Amino acid sequence: MQEDYAIVNTSTRALVPSWGPIGPGPARRTGGAASAGAVFYGAAVIVLVLGGARSGKSELAEQWVERLGSPVTYVATGWNDDDAMAARIEAHRVRRPASWATLEVGTGLAEALRSVHGAVLVDALGTWLARHRDFEVDAGDLCRALQERDGDTVVVSDEVGLGVHPETAVGLAFRDALGSLNRAVAGVADRAVLVVAGRVLELDRWDGGR
User: Fold this and answer.
1) Which of 201, 198, 202, 203 minimizes the C-alpha distance to 8?
2) Cα–Cα distance, 192 to 48 (Å, whole number)
3) Domains of the chain with bracketed CATH
4) Which of 30, 104, 120, 164 has the most CB atoms around it within 10 Å of its CB?
């Protein structure tokens, strides 16, 4: 796992990926991954941005997508069910450029991805998963929808496997389901990064010990 620090703009405290443009991976549908700093052309890319609570993952993903310079659609999976969530949704809305389109989805994330052209930012997989009964989702269909897109896609998700062991059966089920979903999306992603305290780690694929 290679450490790669985020550049912090001292005037805005904004997180900016230090390796520059996203850059399509050279093996989009064969499971290959782009190396840090590499820039490729000719194919759309999938980037998975993982992180814990308040890690800066959403801010980094937003600024990453903004640097693409193309029309962006923000695909929101969260819903307003209490004051705290309403405040979080509003904070995300204020940060986004006014030029971005916003698409709010329920459980139909794969369908939404297939209907939208251009760059897309999905925020986030955890809230999408939570909408499903018993946290049962068709990860394969979601991955196919991501791979079929003609535009770059940045997907934000929570890394919940490193925290406190859940005390409830529901908490355990959610942790395990999201961990499996993250692995599935990472399997088709050209790049995956982990954001910790505003710092960025590039997550390399395991080569089987070779």
Assistant:
1) 198
2) 5
3) 2-202 (3.40.50.300)
4) 120
List the structure tokens of 194: 């982990």
Locate 78 and state its tokens.
């969260």
Whole-Å CA distances, 151 to 9, 107, 139, 156: 28, 21, 20, 16
Residues with a catalytic annotation lie at: 92
Conformational region of residue 37, where left means phi above 0, alpha means psi within -120 to 50, and beta covers everything else: left
Residue 17 · residue 60 · CB < 8 Å: yes
Q: Is 51 exposed, middle or buried (0-12, 13-18, 19+ CB in 10 A)?
A: buried
Nearest to 128 by CA among 94, 158, 149: 158
Q: Which two tokens stand for residue 79?
A: 């819903």
**How far is 36 from 201, CA to CA, in rounded Å?**
10
Averaged pLDDT, groups of 10, the chain, 210 residues long = 33 41 43 37 82 93 87 87 67 79 94 96 96 97 97 96 90 97 97 96 81
